[in-house]
Amino acid sequence: MRRYALFLGCTTPTRVPQYELSTRWVCKNLGIELVDIEDFACCGSNQINISIEAGLLLSAMNLAYAEAQNIDIVALCAACYGVLAEAAEDLKNEELRDRINKQLSTVGLQYNGKTKVKHISRAIYEDIGLNRIRKEIKRDLSNLQIAPHYGCHYLKPRSISRGFDDPDNPKTLHQLISATGASPIEYETLDYCCGGKTFPNSQDLTHSLIAKKLDNLQRKEVDCMVTQCQTCYLMYATQQGKVSEKFGKQYNLPVILYPQLLGLAMGADPVVDLGLNLNVPSVDKVLAKGGQST
Amino acid sequence: MQAQPIRVAELDANFKQEVIAYEAAQDITACFSCGSCTTGCPIHEAYPEYDPRKLARMVNLGMRHRVLSSPYIWYCATCHACEEHCPQNVRFFSVLNVLKNMAAKEGYAPSSWVNQTKQVMKTGIVFPTEEAWVKRREELSLRPLKPEAKEAAKLIRLSGVDEIQPRT
């Protein structure tokens, strides 16, 4: 059985608990053991804006907590994954690691460069695989047309994702969606950024980025968007009403997290196991079209 | 950004050296201003005032004050598209982080980023503890979060970042 420390980050556990809930259900039913490390704190991705050093210290602290339990990390958030994986890469450098370890020792920690970091979708793709997913399908989702949204840090920079997928022409989330029986669509603004990292500083800028993708998808036959990062979810889903109001549009595109889609296909209870009732806008239309047991 | 003349007297010939003293920003000297970064930038598409090519040029010219005081350096979405398309392997994302770090030390950081770091020192995450989400986690039978992170606070203090004052 594959075993990982589950890195929740800041936003999923407090703002998008249905991502955590559905991930735990899916992993339990696919045989991925998730270990909770209570001492994990913020990944450091926002701190690097004002202090690269503060960000790196936080990343190193989290990597050290996992290493102390001899376990690799799986992250839900694309940015947590990105910043922790980059820090793990940087900290392979012994000189830098020695310097950081002097600081970590003040809180009784040490990092020896062993922790590996994966994103949950990549763990499902690589450790479980598409064939196994196809065998687990209990609900017919073949009527669903889905727009995949990868999330910038999932594949960029490619020096970190290392050939897992092509950031300019990505396919793996399309494949993960196809494996559930639903159909991923192609669309022009596939690689657009959700703007989540600019949101605390400039909501107008983020709203205009969100509108570009929603405008594109409004012209397509699509039942919902699937994301694999809670910040992308919050931008496209929770901000959708405000963006509609601001630009005088009538967007009504359900957005769901990939483990929610996979859990649905695997026959999980949409409310109890996946928290789909918490998604805004409502996913009722998606459930009506894809709720039949096979 | 309205075009303004560049005055030689305002240029700081040492600025580039100051920037490349940070390991994360050393690639900036390889920039030949082709604009691939700007072409692929989603923020530039929405807000043309944010222009990575122009910022790189301003650094190399020594426009210290205009770069560090610019509100636009804080608009980056951190998507990494700029460095994916750079033929000179300039990691502009890292260069920009260095510029933002320098700007923050001089009091130009937006309060949003400064406040988030202060919050992490209290709860370990960028949000305060709120009854609504604590209760929601209970209802969903999800484990409670640790309410504080003394270790994170101590490490953040070691970096000196807690002394940074936001832009007023």
Mean model confidence by pLDDT of chain A: 96
Could you state the order of secondary-structure elements of chain A as H and E? EHHEHEHHEHHEHHHEHEHHEHH
Classify the fold: give the CATH topology of the largest domain in chain A: Rossmann fold
**Major β-sheet profile of chain B:** none
Structural class of chain A: alpha/beta
Radius of gyration of chain A: 19 Å
Number of strands of chain A: 8
Question: How many distinct helices of chain B?
Answer: 10
Helix content of chain B: 40-55%
CATH superfamily of the largest domain in chain B: Alpha-helical ferredoxin
Characterization of the model:
The complex is a heterodimer of chains A (294) and B (168). By secondary structure, chain A is of the alpha/beta class. Chain A has helices at residues 11-15, 17-30, 52-68, 78-90, 94-104, 120-128, 130-135, 152-155, 158-161, 172-179, 203-218, 230-238, 240-247, 258-265, 284-290; strands at 2-7, 32-35, 72-75, 117-119, 145-149, 183-184, 224-227, 255-257. Helix content of chain A is 47%, strand content 11%. Chain B is 48% helix and 0% strand. Chain B contains ten helices and no strands. In chain B, helix 8 packs across helix 10 (150-158). The longest helix of chain B is centred in the middle third of the chain and has 14 residues, at 92-105. Chain B is elongated.
